[in-house]
Amino acid sequence: MQRRDFIKFLGGAAAAWPLSARAQQPAMPVIGFLSTSSAEAFVGRLRGFRQGLKEAGYAEGENVAIEYRWAGNQLNRLPELAAELVRREVAVIATSGGPASAFAAKAATTTIPIVFIVGADPVGLGLVTSLARPGGNLTGINFFAFELAAKRLGLLRQLVPGITRVALLVNPTDAAIAGATTRDVETAARTAGMQIQVLNASNSREIDAAFASIARERPDALIVGTGSFLTDRRVQLAQLATRHAVPTIYGGREHAEAGGLISYGTNLTEAYRQIGVYCARILKGAKPADLPVEQSTKFELVINAQTARLLGLTVPPQLLAIADEVIE
């Protein structure tokens, strides 16, 4: 082989080598992320989700891709969004925002693993057969959104002693969350000797109408239910609660950060980190049927001291002492 031909041969081999190497590399796995909400409301939770993946050796854009599907609180969009992820042939689907997204994914596939996060008992909901051995293609995290009603009422009573009449705001279009929240709050209220007035709101105008009712009825305090819609409307809720001078407790810290008075609930950043860990384990070969449903055990109390001052409330020292964060 002449020198000129040899150099051409080497050049051709060098050019072909990267293509050949890339062809031999395994395809990057893809996680589907299906949510009832919007991306703007999930910044902190997504940070936790990516942290869980990172702890298991996966970094988005480097060795794993994530396909996001956001329903924007239009629950009727969930079935088609879930079907899109199935057609995309993702390796696992993470669902968020409550039972509606989990049920949409479950209806869309019996083979692709699904990792859910819900606030109610997943066995009672019918998502899994048992917590220890979920069976089928689903597993996930239960973060106790509803079972904390008695605790929230107790915190309100510490903050506003002598309350007897409490309003509860829920989103009726998210039936599973609204029903469970109402049952738990009414049960806790009966035990505590309180009266509960249930208000419904599934859009911004209905939130305004609910607070118009609060202005007429003048309950002693308000509990805002959980769910992605009420989280997305957290600024409106905080402003109206302050305008109408009604002490209000919420289920997530995002509300207190947006100006809400007080929140108590699961640390959802930590819960979403657990989802990321489970998705990573599935990517490495674990089967959902063998992964027990995790139960969140990390809760947080956040108090907005500035809002308390606007409402003319003095936060008791014992409440400040147990708060995980006090926003000044």
Features:
single chain, seven-stranded mixed sheet, six-stranded parallel sheet, Rossmann fold, 328 residues, elongated
Would you give an account of this structure?
It is a single chain. The protein is of the alpha/beta class. It has two domains: 30-144 and 267-297, Response regulator (Rossmann fold, 3-Layer(aba) Sandwich), CATH 3.40.50.2300; 149-266 and 300-327, Rossmann fold (3-Layer(aba) Sandwich). It has helices at 3-24, 43-55, 78-87, 99-108, 122-125, 149-159, 175-192, 204-217, 228-232, 234-243, 253-257, 268-283, 305-310, 317-322; strands at 30-35, 65-70, 92-96, 114-118, 138-142, 165-170, 195-200, 221-224, 248-250, 262-266, 294-295, 299-304, 325-327. The strands form two sheets. A seven-stranded mixed β-sheet has the order 7-6-8-9-10-12-13, sandwiched between helices. A six-stranded parallel β-sheet has the order 2-1-3-4-5-11, with helices on both faces. Strand 4 (114-118), helix 5 and strand 5 (138-142) form a beta-alpha-beta unit. Helix 2 (43-55) packs across helix 12, helix 3 (78-87) crosses helix 4 (99-108) and helix 8 (204-217) packs parallel to helix 10 (234-243). The longest helix is centred in the first third of the chain and has 22 residues, at 3-24. The protein is elongated, with a radius of gyration of 24 Å. Mean pLDDT is 90; it is low at 6-24.
